[in-house]
Amino acid sequence: MRDIKLGNNLVGMDKPCFIIAELSANHLHDYDIAVKTIQKMKEAGADCVKLQTARPESITLDCTKPDFIVGGGTAWDGRALFDLYKETNTPWDWHEPLKRLVEDLGMVFFSSPFDFEAIDFLEKLNVPAFKIASFEITDIPLIKYAASKHKPMIISTGIATLDDIKDAVHACLSEGNDQIVLLKCTSAYPTPLAEVNLNMIPTIRNEFNCHVGLSDHTLCTSVPLGAVALGAKVIEKHFILDRMLGGPDAAFSLQPEEFKSMVNSVRDLEQALGKSEIAISEKVELSRQFARSLYVVQDVKKGEVFTDQNFRSIRPGYGIKPKYYYDIVGKTARANIERGTRLTWDLISE
Questions:
Q1: What backbone phi and psi angles, to 5 degrees, belong to 311?
Q2: Which of 112, 157, 225, 340 is such that its CA lies 20 to 30 A from the CA of 200?
Q3: pLDDT, tens only, 248-274
């Protein structure tokens, strides 16, 4: 699968993991908090800042009928959908100055659009990609319209069945857009560890032949490490200055020091993962001197038979490899050999 360009970054099998810091509602409708949060995202090592671009009326109705009241054991039970999305909304007039700030800091800026108008708005801002949120993965017209802009499509699969993912991928491909990253996601906030199911990451990659990542709603910084070890090339986490600020997403957002620790651990892990082929480095090659090899352990005279008494497998590793031990037993010495001499083939009779 080919690399996908996101700003000055590439998402690819041999490229560093692309790490997204999600602002979401953690600005609490305070522009200064939004700015400070983005600055901290940079300090914490994020590659990208992601917003959400929506108006509550484009997502739901201002209605208090039971269908429009949150339930089901979520963090927002009892709240009207319209009021919740009004609280989580990022003002549209913030987008351009925040994009400028993000890019001045050397990060990538994009957003999750929730309707056609939002896609057009973000297109005018020349964002380098679109992120489709978990709950919008079934909105095929929305996905097709975003994909028609021929920019990378990063799609969360939090509520998706296999057929839902197939439909979303097909929607992109039908628009001639194969720049797709699927994010393994669990739409539970915060997500219990037993429901993360990281083992789905290679399954999704193999099923759809595309790059895969993780949109993580746990508070555990080790979960992204497991994802990267399984091949995730994108990690998305919610970011907040301080969980004590509160807000709809505070319970599953990382604070700056936690996010930084996660990023550092991901970068360490990437170095440790290294290459997939079986080979040893130059440094390890030097350590092979401490491997075992065959040495003469008693003085041997010319013509004397090699036995288990006069040569053995010992360290260091400069002699014949031990796998030839039984080929040498019973053969004779071609010359006098002192104790402590490494065995070489020219000292052994045919």
A1: -150, 150
A2: 112
A3: 889 999 999 999 999 999 999 999 998
Token pair in block for residue 89:
């909304």
Question: Which ranges of 137-221 would DSSP assign to H, the alpha helix?
Answer: 140-147, 162-174, 200-208
Instruction: Identify the three-state secondary structure at position 305.
Output: strand
159 phi/psi in degrees, rounded to 5: -110, 10
Local structure of residue 52 (DSSP, 8 states): E
What is the spatial distance between Cα 113 and Cα 55, in angstroms, rounded to a whole number?
Answer: 10
Q: What angle do CA 136, 137, 143 make, to 5 degrees?
A: 85
pLDDT, tens digit, for every residue of 206-250? 999 999 999 999 989 999 999 999 999 999 999 999 999 998 889
- Domain 282-347 fold is Type Iii Antifreeze Protein Isoform Hplc 12 (3.90.1210)
Which residue pairs from 93-96 have beta carbons closer than 8 angstroms and sit at least 24 positions apart in sequence?
94/31, 94/34, 95/51, 95/53, 95/121, 95/122, 95/125, 96/125
Closest CA to 19 of 265, 249, 273, 272: 265
Distance of alpha carbon 250 from alpha carbon 65, whole angstroms = 27
pLDDT digits (tens, 9 = 90+) for 33-60: 999 999 999 999 999 999 999 888 888 8
Q: Encoding tokens for residue 227?
A: 């994802």
- Per-residue pLDDT tens over the stretch 171-219: 999 999 999 999 999 988 889 999 999 999 999 999 999 999 999 999 8
DSSP state at residue 178: -
Percentages helix, strand, coil for the chain (3-state, rounded to 5) are 40, 20, 40
Domain spanning 4-54+89-273: which CATH class is it, in words? alpha beta
How many residues does the structure list for the chain?
Answer: 350
Q: Is the dihedral of CA 239, 242, 245, 249 positive or negative?
A: positive
- Spatial neighbors of 165 by CB under 8 A, at least 6 apart, are 137, 155, 157, 182, 204, 207, 208
Token couple for 306: 């090699």
Tokens coding 320: 């014949």
pLDDT for res 113: 96
Q: What residue spans define the domains of the chain?
A: 4-54+89-273, 282-347
